[in-house]
């Protein structure tokens, strides 16, 4: 292995670990403050939404709200199935099937 | 008595591990094409197979690895610029860490330090949805974390080994598995008025930010703004009562 790549891998490992452990290490001594706790309550909704929605509306990096956007159509189907069934297998099965058919078309 | 306690404790552990395995399977399926792509990308960026695999073993962060490999492939090898990019791409984990902190700070320090290494988007999403459904569970988070890690490393190895023979698996639409599984985790959370408002704000802000900002900034910006407004609305409704 080239030493240049070695140092890059070690550096990326440490930086990534810092972002994952930083908050825990900090709050270990202070506890999580009340104001932050209230704010954190809505983090799961906010983070899941901001992970999902751009993937469906901008799959190729530009805004695509049309019938040609396979991700959007399959996403709407998956959201409907998820709402009705609350079942991960059913949602994934139907969503991926729609995706597969759209890719074939 | 003691024995039966011990046995029921064991059962509970087995149950928790089993639930974790069942629930993480679809997410894991979504990770496989990304891991394979990561392996293929490493080779196309003129990294050796060992370098590509070791990056998955140590860094274990999909988005950062993709960006790091792309930069290396483009001849950008400055250590500082690669570290800064990794930091910016991974800043969202600080928010996820804070979100899990109220549950994790009570655990023994070495266990916290160990589990923090595995805190990916997927592990966070599964663990937080388990908390909302029942309660925080260490065996659940550990199982999900380790399975995701092993699959990520094995998928990278597969990509490196098969590199020359298969086309980019992401063109098959397999990458849709990830948003689809996240949808199942998100929808049960949208049970009250404030959550729906937070959802709407996060959706609009993330799309606008994704259009105009580079990298993964859209996740951080949208998450900060939407959850902050959610927290303020929560405070208002508490005062109103």
Automatic annotation (TrEMBL), chain B:
Predominant subcellular localization, coarse grouping: membrane
Membrane-topology descriptor: Multi-pass membrane protein
Keyword presence, Transmembrane: yes
Membrane-crossing segments per the record: 57-89, 109-128, 140-164, 170-187, 194-211, 217-233
Location within or outside the cell: Cell membrane
Stored InterPro entries: Brnchd-chn_aa_trnsp_permease
Keywords in alphabetical order: Cell membrane, Membrane, Transmembrane, Transmembrane helix, Transport
Pfam families named among the record's database cross-references: AzlC (PF03591)
Family in the record: Belongs to the AzlC family.
Protein name as it appears in the record: AzlC family ABC transporter permease
